[in-house]
Amino acid sequence: MGGNSSIPSNMLEIEGFEISPEFKYPLFFLLLFVYSTLLFSNIGVLILILKEKSLHQPMYFLFCNLSVNDLIGNTVLLPQLMAHVLSTKRFVTYNQCLFQAFHSHTFGSASHIILVFMAVDRYVAICNPLRYSTIMTNKTVIGLSATAWGVSILLVSVLLGLTVRLSRCRSVIRNAFCDNPSLFKLSCEDVSINNFYGLFFTVLVFTFSIGGIAATYIRIALICWIKKNKELNNKALQTCASHLVLYLIMLWTGFLTIILHRFPNYPDLRKIAYILFHVVPANLNPIIYGLQTRSLRDKITQIFQRKTVISI
Prior knowledge:
Elements: E1 11-14, H1 21-51, H2 58-75, H3 78-86, E2 91-93, H4 94-127, H5 132-135, H6 138-164, E3 172-173, H7 180-184, H8 192-227, H9 230-261, H10 267-292, H11 294-311
Parallel strand pairs: 1-3
Antiparallel strand pairs: 1-2
Helix pairs in contact: 1-2, 1-3, 1-10, 2-4, 2-6, 2-10, 4-6, 4-8, 4-9, 6-8, 8-9, 9-10, 10-11
């Protein structure tokens, strides 16, 4: 529908992917495997951190925020996507679409903020080890966690609040899922303020994210270079490498999604990039962090050794 008349219906159609019949089930089972792996790894790490007292440290509690965010962000995306892979009728209500868009954008912004706070934690641990326990207290960790979620929810609420006010003259979401640009493109009204706030939102999150990560890592690198302490350098490499890898993966998949939104001639690439932005970091977070972080790696190894002994 291309006219300016408002649509009273609350139902929307998701465009989705054009998938050949022979690829439907392989793609479904691939997504099911990815989602199952994501659930198993993130829930497993959460349970491990909560059960093991030796892991009750600020770094791991901050990482719990990341795992919870990954679980929520992907649970609102992947099950519906899997259902739409098999179905030719891809309909959702406007409220369901809004719900998915809210959690999807919250997932993105919260990921950036949490990773910045994790970088600050690493900076304090490496550059101010004697003051670490007095700076990174439980109160500080709770405050940082609340700030990450609170700021994300506030920014996304305003973002979608500007979209909800618009009347709709279309009913097809030109995407494989619901997000804010897809929702406000349903309207025939002037969406200049939506584009302006969307740009402000993106610039604010990315500036804070890149600026925060760059500032902490430059300071860490300078301290290591000035002190020329081998033990300090090893500690910095061990604790920072995994964090930086996760951040760069998330940053570039996020950039790709934003850039491709500006090129309507590549709709399928944009859809794939957005799914990768959700799925890749969420699957790699517990794996990379678990392998690179000694305490967490040791606990995982102990559990597997214990299970091997029991089975024998």
